[in-house]
Amino acid sequence: MKVAIASGKGGTGKTLLSTNLASYWSKRQPVVLADVDVEEPNDALFLPFSRLNQEDKFKFIPSWHADACILCGQCQEICNFNAIVQLENEIMVFDELCHSCYACSELCPTQALPMIPHKIGELKHSQEGNFSFVESRLRVGEEQAVPLIAQTHQYVDAHFSPQTIMLYDCPPGTSCPMIEATKEADFVILITEPTPFGEHDVKLAMKAMQKTSKTYGVVINRSDAGDDHLRQYCKRNHIPVLATIPFDRQIAILYAQGKLVYEEIPSVRAALDQIIEFIQRL
């Protein structure tokens, strides 16, 4: 079972829900939480586990060999991402724009653009009891999060059985990283807050899930801090509200201290029970 935890807007409680849900669920069965918010992963702040594995992650980019190049220009013409520019006597490769499609390298008549590895980030794997944690972190300055997210999915698939509950803490928003992070999920939890900004952005996330034919439900965080518009919207559109988490100063205090709040806040524990029961009925 693969469950993605996403949000249209940042700051709505995605990390809070991901870490607490994964830890609480692991009391019942094996769980792996993958932090695929690779540009700003922060689940590890709440999960100081012993590390089992760490590895660098790469994408492949073309490397121009001047001695072999005849400056025919085919590489520039075939590149859909403007990652290759031909000057008068030189080919320039812009690593950050390359999508590793291999087209320039494969079509080069003189093999002047062999593909070479380029480090884009690193992956860390740790574990405590039934709870496994995988974090991927993009290198500073790298433009593309999608290749690292895809490789993290491959790592989880290769190292955990289908019987393991797989949770993915996804990037916020509705752009390519969020779509890549949720595309393999059996179910998507959209966490939001009952404010105009939260309602606006979660509706965008809902549209993205509808376009990708994903089954999804909503968790409303700080549920008593705003109005009832979001809950009514979900009701009118038959979107399940899995649980609500009340606005509670003590939750913020524990979160700021890097603690898992379900261990001390009964209302959070009750919300997690509702989410798990809903997903297990699917």
Q: Describe it for me?
A:
- With 282 residues, the protein is an alpha/beta fold.
- The chain has 2 domains: 2-57 and 121-280, Rossmann fold, CATH 3.40.50.300; 64-113, Alpha-Beta Plaits (2-Layer Sandwich).
- The protein is 32% helix and 26% strand.
- The protein is built from 9 helices and 11 strands.
- The chain has helices at 14-25, 74-78, 103-107, 146-159, 176-182, 196-211, 229-236, 249-256, 266-280; strands spanning 2-6, 31-35, 50-62, 84-86, 91-93, 115-128, 131-138, 165-169, 187-192, 216-221, 241-245.
- A 9-stranded mixed β-sheet has the order 3-6-7-2-8-1-9-10-11, sandwiched between helices.
- Helix 4 (146-159) packs parallel to helix 5 (176-182).
- The protein is elongated, with a radius of gyration of 22 Å.
- The model has no long low-confidence stretch (mean pLDDT 95).
Structural class category: alpha/beta
CATH superfamily of the largest domain: P-loop containing nucleotide triphosphate hydrolases
Note the overall shape. Answer: elongated
Please give the largest β-sheet: 9 strands, mixed
Count of individual helical segments: 9
| CATH-defined fold name of the largest domain | Rossmann fold
CATH architecture of the largest domain: 3-Layer(aba) Sandwich
Catalogue the unreliable spans: none
CATH class of the largest domain: Alpha Beta
Say how many strands there are: 11
Helix proportion of residues, in percent?
A: 25-40%
Bin the strand percentage.
25-35%
* Side-by-side strand order of the widest sheet: 3-6-7-2-8-1-9-10-11
Return the average pLDDT rounded to an integer. Answer: 95
Number of domains: 2
In angstroms, what is the radius of gyration?
A: 22 Å
What distance lies between the first and last C-alpha atoms, to the nearest angstrom?
10 Å
